[in-house]
Specification:
15 helices, six-stranded parallel sheet, about 15% strand, alpha/beta, seven-stranded parallel sheet, 13 strands
Length: about 375
């Protein structure tokens, strides 16, 4: 019997962190030929993750250009995927989450009549412009996909409400699988500044901020809030790996650079980011992935957005929305910095994103779908 040709498609750093463990799990199965196609929607940041996980793509579209737009990303992915699919001839294409690469990858698979598996399916805010363009990307992929690998029961229920009733599996989130391979107590950072932070003596607050919907006034408010937190709390040191987006870097330079005890560093490889998170006190972010990663490490998360597609973490108590208003961000951050009981309540909440077995479940479910296994994997309860 021929091996199943399963092609994973991704292009950004967050996708790569969550998909590389799955690429390797697919490759470990004798029934499967694991193929990997990257779009390089994020070139430098993508490559650092591939290096950490020792994943070598079979196909690289290399689409990234300076100040690229959503239209150029999507069109280049679509045209580039034509040759990749025609050459590699996958039986199924796996896409992840909600990026422009995800949407274009799924659409290209549909055009070639190739089955689509959607990893991290079923996340919703129900506001098509927030996050932008991610909310519409994931809804459009839901209309195309054949299999849906939902991190939580809530994600599955979102799809059921949209009358998607077949091919649904609850697997947990593959980012937990990734953390199990990257976080180590004896880890030494290649970014030397991180080896000399006063862990244990000061409260290290890890910051990320880069989302398109926060461009403009919201980002200004966020940067001013971060400056105020640093200025008013001498026991705190902020570490901010600054996204490569020119818009983000300009805001950082105008509003945050020069603030006391604020470490502005370049984006970190996945293993460095995970180990820094493990040693931090608190996470302030507008990222999606960190809302899943930090709770798995027992770190409270304040989300600098108006909404989240990850309400499970809010319900569990590991994540709180603090919005994009300066005073609100400062108030909520300072409560966790100064109130031990409030901090402990969040730090010890149960992580809702699984047990680190998501990749195994996804591959078992794929094998079952293609008739190579008698039963699908057990759903994550």
């Amino acid at each position: 019997m021929n091996k199943l040709r399963i092609m994973s498609v991704f292009g950004t750093r967050p996708e790569a962190i969550k998909m590389c463990p799955l690429v390797k799990e697919l490759a470990s199965r004798p029934e499967i030929e694991s193929l990997c196609c990257v779009t390089a929607q994020h070139r430098q940041m993508l490559d650092s993750v591939l290096e950490v996980f020792e994943v070598k793509p079979d196909w690289d579209l290399d689409i990234m250009t300076p100040r690229q737009t959503l239209s150029t990303i999507t069109s280049k992915c679509l045209t580039g995927m034509d040759e990749a699919i025609d050459t590699l001839k996958p039986d199924m294409i796996l896409v992840h989450g909600d990026t422009s690469t995800t949407f274009a990858g799924a659409l290209s698979a549909f055009y070639h009549q190739v089955k689509v598996g959607h990893v991290e399916a079923g996340l919703r805010t129900y506001d098509k412009y927030s996050p932008f363009p991610e909310e519409m990307n994931r809804k459009l992929v839901s209309s195309i996909a054949d299999l849906y690998f939902c991190p939580t029961v809530n994600n599955k229920n979102n799809l059921l409400r949209e009358n998607i009733t077949e091919g649904l599996f609850v697997t947990g989130n593959t980012v937990i699988d990734a953390l199990k391979t990257t976080v180590r107590e004896d880890y030494k950072f290649s970014t030397d500044e991180l080896n000399h932070l006063p862990y244990g003596e000061k409260k290290i607050v890890l910051v990320t901020c880069h989302r398109r919907e926060n461009y403009g006034e919201p980002m200004k408010n966020i940067m001013l809030a971060l400056r105020q937190i640093a200025e008013e709390n001498p026991e705190v040191e902020l570490v901010y790996p600054v996204h490569l987006s020119p818009v983000v870097r300009e805001a950082v330079d105008i509003y945050l650079r020069g603030a006391p005890r604020v470490h502005l560093i370049d984006p970190l490889p996945a293993d460095e980011m995970h180990n820094l998170m493990a040693r931090s006190y608190l996470v302030l972010t507008d990222s999606g992935g960190l809302q899943e990663e930090a709770p798995a490490l027992g770190k409270p998360v304040l989300v600098m957005r108006r909404e989240t597609e990850r309400p499970e973490a809010v319900a569990a108590g590991t994540v709180k929305l603090c919005g994009v208003v300066q005073d609100d961000i400062v108030t909520m951050a300072e409560r966790l910095i100064r109130d031990k009981s409030a901090y402990e309540k969040m730090a010890h909440a149960v992580n809702p994103y699984g047990d680190g077995q998501a990749c195994r479940r996804i591959v078992d479910d794929i094998l079952w779908y293609f008739g190579r296994r008698e039963q699908p994997a057990e759903d994550l309860a």
